[in-house]
Amino acid sequence: MCGIIGYTGNEPAKDILINGLKQLEYRGYDSAGIAVLDPNSGIVLKKKTGKVEELAKAAEAEKTDATCGIGHTRWATHGGVTETNAHPHSQGQVTICHNGIIENYKELTTEYGLKNVLKSETDTEVVAALLDKFYEGDPYKTIKKVVDLLAGSFALCIMFEDQPGKIFAIRNVSPMVAAAFDGGSIIASDLTAVINFSKKYFVVPEYHILTLTDSGITVQDLKGRKVEPEILEVNWDITSAQKGGYPHYMLKEINEQPEAIERTVAPRIQNGLPFLADDGIDDDVLKNLKDIVIVACGTAMHAGMVGKSIIESKLRIPVLVEIASEFRYKDPIIDEKTLTIVVSQSGETIDTLEALRLAKQKGSKVLSVVNVKGSTIARESDYVLYTHAGPEIAVASTKAYTVQIAAMYILAARLGLVRGVVSEEETKEFMEKLLGVGELMQKTIEASNDIRRIANHIKTAPDVFYIGRGIDYTLSLEASLKLKEISYIHSEAYAAGELKHGTIALISENVPVIAIATEEHVYPKVISNVREVKSRGAYVILISCEGKTESKEVCDKQIYIPKVDSVFGVFATAVILQLIAYYTSDAKGLDVDKPRNLAKSVTVE
Ligand code: M6R
Does the predicted model carry a pTM greater than 0.85? Predict the structure, then answer.
């Protein structure tokens, strides 16, 4: 939710900031702005509503060689989408960018009599005004004093007009990474904006004050002590965060799935068996658990549902899947015998993070399945199983989802083995099949022409329904979310057998129903449900395994996945469903990668 960046060094800052904001744009894209600190003319500020490209055009005429500046790309929370509400915000000597939410901004405004100085409706400007109010020439002292007053989450980049060449930064919860390199110092919400300058970086520690200059970065805790942050090295390069010839990130990321699965699964196989010791995952915790709760949001939660399906059916361990924002406020029934599995691509979704904290408070051990290395969720978990999808830039999650499912499968396999529920032979076979799903996905991607035609058909539909049973039902939930978020078509996912209990009233002539029927044992049941909608005029698209061909009386179109046990078929089916959403959005001429009202990571409640 919002991307921030700061750069100080030897090069003109303007272009560096704008290019960095382009990388960060997926975090929020309703307005953007930059401020550079020119030693001669002071702060030069440029803001624009709309995407970063609008800002880039507006800033073209701005002639400044200033080598120090900060920038922001916004997803509005407090205050509408206006130029005044866009960041950076200046108050007197102080200019800041902020990601997060200051929960007590109203109280602070009243207590410190700031109402008359504020120009915007944002919580952020209150912080700028407080910093300016208390500033007497010592940035460290002032930041410390103001931060003590703040409630909420924040990542702040701050410039003081009488401190040329310097950027100060501090954070609580909201993420920031920083790097010092030959040409200066850079700080940003995530690595995509840093990696062009340095592969070595550090995660900004919470409640530490950073001073960035052209010759390096100092980190001090709030007692004034210098701290040496742990330097990490990124294992992907900038090309991973670029489109690489694809028209959209989403299509690129769909195509990257076979590799991402291989990267996630292969290193966790030793002698054919699942191996989690290198991840620091203790077999004892798997052996001794009595139940599992999976907590996540959105797509990650849907991956959790697939995990539940396999863990319950193969291992007979009770698994609850909880929406993180609900879990937080319901006094969940968990204890030290419960393993809480937290799933998150970004590792910074606030609802998921707070759910994790609650689970720990209740004595549960927390194992997180996370894509972003060093993210808050990863750092606060007892165990981390990193997925290796690489950076996911499209707002609609695709490759992160399938690697999350793969991670669940690895966990399930290890669980089965260490608890003695599944034999070594069976486990080896399972892992071999899991490793093979990349190939199935590749074949599905290559045969995607039909999917494009189907998308063309449904692009004008006002409503689309997805139905399935068992694991296919969990897939339909994700498919429906994907279609809604990028094509803006209303869609619902239903357990196929449940439709007749009410919702079937919505089925009429030509309403598209996408039926997923890859599970052998319930195939005839799903087909019966398909007949029910077909006889009411629905336009049925049936996804089934090769060899299961149905007549025109049953369905209008059929898409096949390779004939495989549905536990492994989910990967190929997921690709088909992602492509249906992708091509529909594209056929409607929408901004596939940056759908309206959304942002990549949701760091507000
Ligand atoms: O970063 P996370 O996995 O924690 O994000 C969770 C959801 O916000 C995310 O999956 C969201 O639902 C996607 N945009 C859906 O495509």
Answer: yes
